[in-house]
């Protein structure tokens, strides 16, 4: 037991009595008690019993540079001493905000030269929704208000972003979705591709966007929002035909493209942004997570010259948050980006550790229970199946085998997530080859154990 906190059982009791966890069955968790994480360094988190857990999920897909970097702690302390808080509402700005905005404009592809700062990915997507609709109002097309999204997408869990998310379980609770949003099907060939080849299926799913625009009327549709690779939906990598067709369709109908890069951004796919990996030209881009490597909450909407010009010329945009461009968060994000650039974290990962992981990950298809293995950069998934050739689902309730495997991973000191019967990883971008070996070894052991239990 470590010294600087209460005994584990006491902390679990306090947690159960007072702490409501996100996306959690409260009673089920409280009955067994949460695992209490007390410290972290590099790619490992340590629990209150001193167990070291390899974090195959980089927290929640966010700790891109790894845990516990001293330079970030120092940048935070310096900024708190200098200017702990000021807002940017009333014709003021401050050095961290303007430096970070300029840095993001430099890093972002195309003409995404403007940033509206938010506190998280969810409220960034709320900003995007309001900005896209406001844009069309200012352009004299106030009827262009519908935002199109996809089933099984995840864009956050506020009223707005939770509605954009195509998660049916979320829509069942709390009055979601709000009006003015519609969804098309996802490009998940493994689960939904049927007899089609991946290429045919990618085109078919992309063309659902065109059909939806024509059905609703192009004069009614403001924007299409999508993650370059669906993360929380199970790391669904679209077939190669998908994104070029989507770009063709949004161009043809003049629909704004909002790329939600909350997970894909800041190196995860092997380029700074997922849209570069897939050749997309978004009008607005959602960023959060890797922007600060999760050291503090910060999000943003990167906005193209085309959209920013109209919004800036349109009088007051009546939108913003107390913590938009929080100076401490901005200073930390700047330091995070400095580390990523100076240490060439994205380049090194893309040239060395990502291809190394890819070879090992794809070899998992030799496991009797693993159907497809998908990986781009440092985000990857495997589909668990009782019959690979038929791409079959388990007869038991979908997700049970995935859940069992996730629990075996956790017991074996590996954080790996499950989405139904898909297992996913997104480790810190700085994971070494030796740590990748450890991740794969623990994953295989957990899959073997999971298969035994599921029999
Ligand atoms: N968009 C995507 C693609 C995400 O994966 C997430 C969170 O996982 C969000 C938005 C919401 O971000 P946040 O949890 O910071 O509100």
UniProtKB/TrEMBL annotation:
Keywords attached to this entry: Aminotransferase, Pyridoxal phosphate, Transferase
Protein name, UniProt field: Aminotransferase
Keyword Transferase in annotation: yes
PANTHER family the UniProt entry points to: AMINOTRANSFERASE, AMINOTRANSFERASE CLASS-III
UniProt cross-references to InterPro entries, sorted A to Z: Aminotrans_3, Aminotrans_3_PPA_site, PyrdxlP-dep_Trfase, PyrdxlP-dep_Trfase_major, PyrdxlP-dep_Trfase_small
Coiled-coil blocks: none
Cofactors named for this entry: pyridoxal 5'-phosphate
UniProt source species: Paenirhodobacter enshiensis
Family: Belongs to the class-III pyridoxal-phosphate-dependent aminotransferase family.
GO molecular function: pyridoxal phosphate binding; transaminase activity
Pfam families xref list: Aminotran_3
């Amino acid at each position: 037991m470590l010294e600087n906190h209460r005994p584990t059982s006491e902390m679990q009791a306090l947690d159960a009595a007072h702490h409501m966890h996100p996306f959690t069955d409260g009673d089920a968790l409280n009955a067994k008690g949460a695992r209490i994480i007390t410290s972290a360094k590099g790619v490992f988190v340590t629990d209150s019993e001193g167990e070291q857990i390899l974090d195959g999920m980089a927290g929640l897909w966010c700790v891109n540079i790894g845990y516990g970097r001293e330079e970030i702690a120092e940048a935070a302390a310096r900024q708190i001493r200098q200017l702990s808080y000021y807002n940017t509402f009333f014709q003021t700005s401050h050095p961290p905000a303007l430096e970070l905005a300029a840095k993001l404009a430099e890093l972002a592809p195309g003409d995404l030269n403007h940033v509206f700062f938010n506190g998280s990915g969810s409220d960034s997507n709320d900003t995007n929704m309001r900005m896209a609709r406001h844009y069309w109002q200012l352009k004299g097309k106030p009827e262009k208000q519908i935002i199109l999204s996809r089933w099984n997408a995840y864009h956050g869990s506020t009223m707005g972003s939770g509605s954009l998310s195509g998660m049916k379980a979320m829509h069942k609770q709390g009055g979601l979705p709000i009006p003015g949003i519609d969804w098309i099907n996802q490009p998940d060939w493994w689960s939904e591709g049927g007899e089609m080849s991946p290429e045919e299926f990618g085109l078919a799913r992309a063309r659902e966007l065109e059909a939806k625009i024509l059905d609703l009327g192009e004069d009614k549709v403001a924007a299409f929002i999508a993650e370059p690779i669906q993360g929380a939906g199970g790391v669904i990598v679209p077939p190669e035909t998908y994104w070029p067709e989507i770009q063709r369709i949004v161009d043809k109908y003049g629909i704004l493209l909002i790329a939600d890069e909350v997970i894909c951004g800041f190196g995860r796919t092997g380029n700074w942004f997922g849209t570069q990996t897939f050749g997309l030209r978004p009008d607005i881009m959602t960023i959060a997570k890797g922007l600060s490597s999760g050291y503090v909450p910060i999000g943003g909407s990167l906005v193209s010259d085309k959209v920013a010009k109209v919004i800036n010329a349109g009088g007051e945009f009546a939108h913003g948050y107390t913590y938009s461009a929080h100076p401490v968060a901005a200073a930390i994000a700047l330091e995070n980006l400095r580390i990523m650039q100076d240490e060439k974290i994205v380049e090194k990962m893309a040239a060395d550790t990502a291809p190394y992981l890819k070879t090992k990950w794809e070899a998992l298809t030799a496991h009797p229970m693993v159907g497809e293995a998908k990986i781009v950069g440092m985000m990857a998934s495997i589909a668990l199946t009782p019959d690979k050739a038929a791409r079959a689902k388990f007869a038991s309730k979908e997700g049970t085998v995935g859940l069992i495997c996730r629990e075996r991973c956790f017991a074996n000191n590996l954080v790996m997530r499950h989405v139904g019967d898909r297992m996913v990883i997104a480790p810190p971008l700085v994971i070494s080859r030796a740590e990748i070996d450890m991740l794969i070894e623990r994953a295989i052991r957990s899959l073997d154990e999971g298969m035994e239990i599921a029999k």
